[in-house]
Amino acid sequence: MIVHGVQEWALTGKLPGPLPFGHKVPSTLGYGPDDAQFLARNGFNLMRLSMSYWEYAPGRFDDGYLDGFRTFVNELDTAGVYSLLDLQQAIYGPHFKGGEGFPDWMTFTDGVPSDNAGYPDAYFGDPAENRAWDNFWANVSAPDGVGLQDHLARGWQHLADRFAATPGLLGFDLLNEPWPGSVWQSCAGPLGCPPGGFDGTSLSALYGRIIGAIRQADPTRLVVYEPNLLFDYGAATNVDPPKDPHLVFGFHDYCLGALAPGGSESSGCATEDPQALQNAIAYGQRSGNGLLLGEWGGLSGPVDTARMVALADQYLLPWSYWDYGNVVRDPSRPPTGTNVNSAQLRLLVRPYPQTVAGTPKSIVFDPATRQFTTTFTTTLPDGRPAGALSSDVFIPRLQYPNGYRVTVAGAGILPSTDPQHLELRACPGSRSITVEVAPGGSAQSTSCSFAPFTHGCRSATGKLGGLQLGPVKLGMTRARARSRFSSFSTRGRRFMDFFCPGQHGIRAGYPSPKLLRTLSPAQLRRVQGRVVLALTANRHYGLRRVHPGARLAAVARQLTVGRGFHIGLNWWYLVPNGPSRGVLIVRHGKIEEIGIADKQLTTNRLAVRRFLTSFS
To answer: CATH number, domain at 36?
Structure first.
């Protein structure tokens, strides 16, 4: 998945709940479904949401504040846009002039006076602000005797638990632009902090503490960790990669030259801009973690904006632009007409592959000619073949108002009702796919074609109910299930069969050795080599009259939907279904697949998670 996102433009000020001051809840600023839909139709699939720290007193959390953000996360998800919760800070907190982030009870200056320099000067010269950071990194005790960092870790665990059943939430951005405190000068050179310095000690230890706490509540959601602030301006990072399989290194890129005469449009930024990107790519290669250009653009004019989006394409980087207020001037008004900065929007909205069934190799877009080319292999980053998985390339109407011509090598185009989304599937035997788009017309040239689904496929017969999904029945042997169909594919998954391949087929899952090792001897004898899961996206089928394509919110009460399970990019919900468990697979609030699962293997939450992860 590749994201093009924006940062929520958020004012700070007095808050209505127990948290006295901070970033305001999106709805109080006018954010709502119209903003979410505006983002989606312009190809933005991520919004980074600015939050202040939500622990208003030691051990006491402003849950009303958190729930206000969750409301907007749900609205974004309904529109098909992911959210990233971002703990914002600037010069530590509101104790300092122009600051935001940590509350006063977490601010210890030891009586050192502040020079009230404001943002960003306080970082470099305010002794009180740097003392507050020094005490934070020393994990000094809060009034209740618990260390400041320990409080922060518990706060993140509390938030992760409260958002555990919230679909559409991509992950958690742990701390915006952490500052080294009084040792900052040792980190200010091109090589960054020295070995054994701030990055490798204080910052690395903080991330380990927070991630460990989050994983007590949410074991799989992405965690974004950032380098210290000086990385933004060209310093390298030496933070130790945390030990966790679901991490993203989130970095920012701001040009110091933007503060000089000529600003970001000067030639200096043409030299400075690539440095942070190259440092991030080098770190990504060392750490093996994903990358996100989480902030850029706050100081950029049109020349620098165009340069940065082109560089992001060149380096295949997902990004989030700062901020929405530079695109939509007032979120309390509809995002139309003069409320939209059309010139800036046109610079940001570009064709790109949003999901890739394989590994991206190149993305090139020429705004002058509107010629677009992207190439990717059909091998997933972990080495598995993509098989019949599909890719989604966004082709914006804003750039192609009169349609577009497309040539695809190595893949066919799947039927779609949305011309802004080009859905592709690799041709049999294809090792790479190239997509070329030019403005005007609607001609399509492909290397192969995929016929629309017809009910001639035998998997379309029968009903869903009890232990049965069409021709497949829970407890049926694998050989028996395969005999019901004219063809099948495993798509690289040894313990799943795909029947009547395509979005309208059926897939059947069988216990893997890892799952079998957790079962009692009696359970093992009962299910080994037999169907324990059956799923379909075919709208011919209905689970208690609920069909794929329905919105979860509209049917949750009808099906008695409880707390879900976040597995990969999807949410799985199990519902009562007589002798089996009904299954809903949900993405962005829409039910993508329905099905049935073995009831005896899904008796409690631990067993369900173990069961589902064996198929994800």
So the answer is: 3.20.20.80
